[in-house]
Amino acid sequence: MRIDWASHVALVLYSNFGLVLGDSLLAIRGLDPALAEKYKPVNGKFTCLDGSKELAFSRVNDDYCDCADGSDEPGTSACENGTFYCANKGHIPGKLRAWQVNDGVCDYDVCCDGSDEWDSEATCPDKCSEIGKAHRQIEAEQQQKQQAGAKRLHELVDQAKQLREAKTAELAEEQIKLEQLEKQLAEAEARKNDLEQQQRDYEANSNAGKLQALSDQHLPDFIRYRKLLSAELHILRAHRDTLILMLKAVRSDHNPEFNDEAVLSAISGYSEFIDAYPYLEAAALEYADEDTAAREERQLQMDRDNEEQDDVSLSACANAVEIALNERQTLNDDISMLYGLMDGMRSGYNKNYHDLAVKGAVSGLDEFDRTRERDLVEVKDQKQQVDELKKTFDEVKPQVSELAELASDDSSGDLDTQVSEARSAFWDKQSEKTQANSKVSNLQELLKDKDLGPEDVFLPVYKECFSLDAGEYTYEVCLLDRATQIENKNSARQNLGTFAGFGDGNDYSKLKFTHGTKCWNGPERSMTVKFECSSEIKLVSVKEPEKCEYEAHMTGPFACALSQQHVEDPETSGLEAADLSAEAEAEAVKDHPHDEL
Length: 597
Known about the structure:
The structure is a single chain. The protein is an alpha+beta fold. About 55% of the residues lie in helices and about 15% in strands. It is built from 11 helices and 12 strands. It has helices at about 5-15, 130-205, 205-255, 260-275, 280-290, 290-310, 315-350, 355-380, 385-405, 415-450, 575-590, and strands at about 45, 55, 85, 95, 465-470, 475-480, 480-485, 495-505, 505-515, 525-535, 540-545, 550-555. An 8-stranded mixed beta sheet has the order 5-6-7-8-9-10-12-11. Strand 1 and strand 2 form a beta hairpin. Helix 3 (about 205-255) packs antiparallel against helix 8 (about 355-380). The model is unreliable at about 1-25 and about 565-595 (pLDDT under 50).
């Protein structure tokens, strides 16, 4: 161990005269200044910081580990559990593990002043000035970024306050409007009912009345028959669309170099069919773009529309049944033809050719057979009921046609016009009331029930969407609404979840989207969005660390601290603060002596 002159004098003075030189002269190498008081010798002794042992002060930094806690060797590598303090003037002080002292490696990430290699062959010049400057520049940029984000956050808070006031006023107006519409609707309904009663009285003994009597008796059967046909049509349309998509894929993706006759025959037949009915291919592509929920909602809407249009009278329902029967026949013919093309290819294609498109289509047809069999089970189970309803329909339909024609000669004059106008007025008011009621409900949910973050910070950007083109997919995140994955090749959309809340503990820098489209042999898709403080709201990246569980990185002010006052100009305040910090730090650590034990 090397003991410099000043330290020797200090020890002699203390031992003989009870004196200790001031800190400006005597310092202990590797010692954290915060512990300096504990390293002043008492009667020439040093006590281990854990209190386990007392030893001569001369044994501090003697390159031999005496204390169990390593406190007697702050400046050497003798104690494995010891630490070495680096002053790092011009930068941030650091602490190094003792075994790294004098190991021949310049540990600039901790000791930028090179003081840890004080007795090794390594030459470690002091780099704290340049490292500290770079560090302060990074801190200044981060501070500037934080301040710009905080400023944007304040702007959103201000906008949210104004927007809440505006929407609160809008809600009050819509509630008044809704009350007025409810009164107007009641008046319109009363007038409609009165005129309809007059019309019924007039038609009681007319051909229209006889038609109505027939309707009262058989309309429920007609409606039941129409609904059974409608359910079957949904199944048949899906079957035709599936076959079209398989044949389309074969036509576009097969390998023409194989010149497989069975494949070419199927393609030729499909091309001839689709050239005659090109709109069917477009309809099949729309079917492919739908997820299960969207398809079921579309079919339900079709059924609701049919009920409104076709179930209002016996004549309308009879015509709807005729149209459904014709479409069923067309669908069965189309399916038979398309299936024949696919089945012929399945049985005749050359299995020695490695044509992935063809093999995929054959596999798809096998799956189609199983799906078709399952789908048609319910249809077969209802066949007896359908046959009975068809028999009734065939018997009653001629009477309906005859009475409808005779009833057309009946004339109730202005009464029919008045009833029609009254109904239209009633339906218009009903539609207005529905829209107003929906608007009031949405506003109430937004303003009273929905968590919009601290001080409604998400209100100005509620449901605003941000997208990222990631190559194969485009990802779209709509704030507090939904997350979507869009395949760039064919625009197919996958629901990655609807907004389910913020991060745990009201962490408003995280958004959770759950209950997305279920993965094949996997969970429902979900996404977690994590924000990084920034003034710009932007979708930066998306990754899938677990199957169908997505993580999105976004920038935005929602991860910034919301101070009580508006921030300063972010262009200058960050750099100025960093410069001041650097000056203070340099002042605090300058001119410490290196007279060390």
